[in-house]
Amino acid sequence: MTVDQDASTRRGDLVPGLLERLADVLASEPGVLRGFERTVGDEVQGVLEDPSTVVSAALEMLRLGGWSVGIGVGPADLPLPATSRAATGPVFVRARAAVERARGRGSAVPLAVDAGDGPGAVPAAEAEAVLRLLGGVVGRRTPAGWEVVDLLAGSELRQKDVAARLGVSEQAVSQRLRTALWSEELAVRPVAARLLAEGDR
To answer: Rounded CA gap, 135 and 157, in Å?
Structure first.
């Protein structure tokens, strides 16, 4: 994945905050071959082999906003060096092409997936469409929606536990989750991951 900050001259350098956030989000995720690091300027790069982890990272960056996300699908030259900056192979070229396309498209959801021109191109395009739709969902989620989603995600809390913790009714928690489209996001995430995996075959 190659990610570029938007409007960095106006917004300042947000890379350190992003790297810290991604390290937290991906700490328990599988398949992080090389963690995200600054490559040049306001650009960061990471090497992930698990499609579900790619989905998590992409949606986290789209949640934050202000980042163009490029996902390259394909092989890397092995063995991988210690840092992603020194790595080579088709997947890095594709990630670069993807972030350029994401940055230039003027879309509400600046994300692109590139798997080259081979048989992986169709599932990669489908993965891009699904991820952009999911990005639209997370990008429009309200702070109240995130409050309940963040408590439920990756935990064993039930809605009544979240309601007690927030001092609201269970009905209020349920309404926030419906408005946040949380169950829909959970259902679609594996679809995006499967399409990314198909693009890599």
So the answer is: 25
Q: Tokens in use for 155?
A: 């935990």
Classified as helix, coil or strand, 196 is helix
Q: Is residue 77 part of a domain?
A: yes
pLDDT for 103-148, tens place per residue?
A: 986 778 999 999 999 999 999 999 999 999 999 999 999 999 999 9
Residue 5: which H helix or E strand, with range? strand 2-5
Residue 151 lies in a domain: no
**Which range of residues forms the domain containing residue 38?**
2-120
pTM: 0.94
Q: H helices then E strands: how many in the chain?
A: 9, 5
- Specify the residue for token string 């693009």: 199
Q: What whole-number distance in Å separates Cα of residue 164 and Cα of residue 174?
A: 13
CB 75 within 8 A of CB 92: no
